[in-house]
Amino acid sequence: MEKHAIFGGKVLPYALLAPQLAIILVFFYWPASQAVWQSFLQQDAFGLKSEFIGLANYAELLTSREYYRTLSTTLVFSTAVAGLSLGIALLLAVQADKQIRGAGVYRTLLIWPYAVAPAVAGVLWLFMFQPSLGMLARGLRTLGVDWNPLLNGNHAMTLVVLAATWKQISYNFLFFLAGLQAIPRSVYEAAAIDGAKPRRRFWTITFPLLSPTAFFLLVVNVVYVFFDTFGIIDTVTQGGPSKATETLVYKVYVDGKLGSDLGGSAAQSVILLVIVMALTAVQFKFIERKVTY
Amino acid sequence: MVEQHTALSRLLPHLILGIGVLVVAFPVYLAFIASTHDAAAVINGTFGLLPGGRLIENYGRVLFTGSSSTTREPVWTMLVNSFVMAMTVAGGKILISIISAFAVVYFKFPFRTAIFWIIFVTLMLPVEVRIYPTYKVVSDLGLLDTYSGLTVPLVASATGTLLFRQFFMTVPDELIEASKIDGAGPWKFFRDTLVPLSLTTCAALFVIQFIYGWNQYLWPLLITTRDNMQTIVIGIKKMIVTQDALTEWQLAMATAVLAMLPPVLVVVLMQRLFVKGLVETEK
């Protein structure tokens, strides 16, 4: 699709694009290309000289057990958060879609956590589950659970999953509700007249018609867990105890922060880059976000 | 529908939604309650579910004095930093992307498609995949601990450009033809026709980007080292000393409440724009 009536002008369009392009080149493309370049280098401890070592950084990563552990932690984390937050959000959205009194109020009361920063969400959950003073941690103790996310990796993972899920429900709820409201009432009415009970109507009408929304949300949720939960991890566990909650992004941050392994950190960045590209491609290809040109 | 409504079928949705609302609100409620008690009650975990009497004292202390043990910076300064950051990022993104989309849609020039893709591909380059090289660029430019360093790199926006481009495509060609007949140049058309038509889109994008800017974490963590440049989201993290009884939780929770308030208010008060912005930027 193109506009028919178009302005002439040789300099103006470039001038209009200049600010955006300048920022993109300086702060996006240049650093990204640096990351790719550094991933082929090995630096000495002081960063004084570096040596081209080809794919050695990648080889080292892909043969280290630690990296696979981080990868599997990330996968467990994203599966848990996506599963929980999509499930809960769908349940709530289906209820809110029924013609009930106060549906708008419920919506308002359910969507605001979107506005809470991941790092702040982390702090709220940390406070509730802080082993010595947290209200819910004490409750667990009373029930006989030896709750301690500072020492127990599974407890720490549970905690970050809860915080990340809590924050993501609002987003999924909103999109599920929009998806549900786009399904015409008449389809339900026709099915009801034909004798389909509510449960059957859900599985044969709602579920299939909602699956594009669900698929879109699945991808968005995975991206969210991979990249946007950095703040949650950093406030709640710092990747611990003994790396039980270290995600791929958090590992890039930690490995590069100590300055010891810039090449390895860069190689990890490049792998992440490939993952984002794949996810974005899936998002655009299958969800038909239209960017034809 | 055709089924009989029983009392249960009428109550069940309210029950489920009610529980959902309570579970979602509980962490924030508890944070607020904790922020109104004194240190001893919070440390012992004996403060219960009702507000205490330290509301004014605790909030006054964090806002104007700062929590003592770890960071001495008053939260007031952090709120100002967060506000400057969120406003600049949101405003900058809108400005930069509306003029980019204007160029891409309304002009024909060499490399137009290539430039569009150059902008588009940045969607795949989040800060997280280029942490240290980007830090190095900012540091080489001498922008660490400055508002420019905090905001300028975040101002580019593929999402915004796509959104405005999509919107401009729906603007009827007759408008530009009419403008041309009236002898208007590109700027006049942009200012007098396109911008007024785009105001709702701008507002919706603003709401989303304000929240985005306010909630940034990794970026300010890298770029700011001085206490007086911290944003409030970073400030909270510094108040929590893990594995240490020194954390003044009542003050940290007061700060958390203050950190949530502006973006949550934006969502609640501008709900229609928020929903529009969210749905459209993701489409």
Give a quick summary of the entry.
Chain A is an all-alpha fold and about 290 residues long.
Q: Biggest sheet of chain A, in brief?
A: 2 strands, antiparallel
The number of domains of chain B: 1
DSSP E strands of chain B, number: 0
- The CATH architecture of chain A can be named as Orthogonal Bundle
Classified by CATH, the class of chain A is: Mainly Alpha
Shape of chain A: globular
Q: Which band does the percent of strand residues of chain A land in? A: under 5%
Strand content of chain B: under 5%
Provide the low-confidence segments of chain A as ranges: 289-293
Counted by DSSP, the helix tally of chain A is 12
Distance between the termini of chain A: 8 Å
What does this structure look like?
Chain A is mainly alpha-helical and 293 residues long. Chain A has a single domain, classed as Orthogonal Bundle (MetI-like fold), CATH 1.10.3720.10. Chain A is 71% helix and 2% strand. Chain A has a two-stranded antiparallel sheet with strand order 1-2. The longest helix of chain A has 33 residues, at 65-97. Chain A starts with 11 loop residues before the first helix and ends in a 7-residue tail after the last helix. Chain B is an all-alpha fold and 283 residues long. In chain B, 72% of the residues lie in helices and 0% in strands. In chain B, 46% of the residues are buried. The chains are: A mainly alpha (293), B mainly alpha (283). The interface between A and B is large, with 104 and 106 residues.
